[in-house]
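Whether sequence alone determines local backbone shape is best considered at the level of individual chains. The sequence in question and its structure tokens are set out directly beneath this paragraph.

===
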Amino acid sequence: MTTMQLREELFRELNPLLDSEEAMKRLIKYAKKIAAPKPDPTLMTKEEFFHRVDEAKKGASKSFDNVAELDKYIRSL
């Protein structure tokens, strides 16, 4: 279905519910629930970020003398 078709179906299904105050309250509550922003798991404090950078510096690393070696390594993964 296209976005336009989905919108049409949504409004067709919602239209009869708009006559009921109780149904509208439930619809609003549900819409707010599904539209609520989800916490971003990638967000971190400045301290957490620098701690992760320090930990990464301590770990194993690879270096390449030229782009061809890097390309060969990436393609082997």
User: Anything to note?
Assistant: DSSP finds four helices and no strands in the chain.
